[in-house]
Amino acid sequence: MNPTRRGPWVLLLLVLAGLCGAVTLPAWLTATATGPVIGTVAVRVTGAAAAPGVIGASLVLAAAAIALGLVGRIGRWVVSVVVAAGGVLVVVGALGARSGAVDRARQAAADLTGVGVLDGDVTVTAWPWAAVGLGVLVLVAAVLLVRASAHWAAPSSRHERAGAESTTPERAEPAEDDERATWDALGRGDDPT
User: Fold this and answer.
1) CB atoms inside a 10 Å sphere around CB 102
2) What is the pTM (predicted TM-score) of this model?
3) Helix or strand or coil: residue 136?
């Protein structure tokens, strides 16, 4: 990855955010329960239900990716801290889902059958470990982002309004043959004709 460009980092954070969201779609916990009316049913708890913090972290990572393309030097540090916090949230959420697996499965069984009693053991799939791995990748990306962002140029002021501190807009007269000045005048809302 080119350390002097932001685009690949924005894309990397968006991919990590998407992966953190996608890893919550499959079942993280499975069990069986028997209800008085519907009989024995399979209880499946998705990652989104088992670890809602992972979904929140994926949204935070997506927002951080978008912000990364817009912020200056201090903002890059803030984004790096936010990315690291998102990685920690993914790891903690996934490990918390593993430790609270029985309680979450009982709640899901109660929702399905009306009785919060499981027939057997709760099986924890490999998806929480995949989420832990993604969280660690996010933490590594945050550290590398701090190092890479030191080489970035400041964002341009190309889209900043000239003389923004004045209350009345100034009309600039473009040179006749200066095509760029004509486009800039159009961008400001001035009619160069």
Assistant:
1) 14
2) 0.71
3) helix
Asked if residue 28 lies in contact with residue 50, where contact means CB atoms within 8 angstroms, the answer is: yes
Q: Rounded CA gap, 40 and 97, in Å?
A: 24
Judged by DSSP in three states, 147 sits in helix
Cα–Cα distance between 94 and 119 in angstroms, integer?
Answer: 24
Residue 140 confidence (pLDDT): 95
Place of tokens 């209880």: 43
Q: Where are the domains of the chain?
A: 7-155, 161-193
Higher pLDDT, 156 or 118: 118
Take residue 2 and report the two structure tokens written for it: 């080119």
Answer yes or no: is pLDDT of 171 > 60: no
With beta carbons less than 8 A apart as the criterion, state whether 110 and 116 touch: yes
Those residues whose C-beta lies under 8 Å from the C-beta of residue 156, and which sit 6 or more positions away, are none
C-alpha 94: how far from chain center: 16
CA 161 to chain centre: 31
The CATH class given to the 7-155 domain equals: mainly alpha
Q: How confident is the model at residue 174 (pLDDT cuts 50, 70, 90)?
A: very low
Question: Measured between alpha carbons, how far is 46 from 29 in angstroms, rounded to an integer?
Answer: 7
Q: How far is CA 121 from CA 7, 45, 47, 66, 155, in A?
A: 47, 14, 18, 43, 55
- Position 137 confidence tier, pLDDT thresholds 50, 70, 90: very high
Instruction: Let me know: does 58 contact 48? Beta carbons within 8 Å.
Output: no
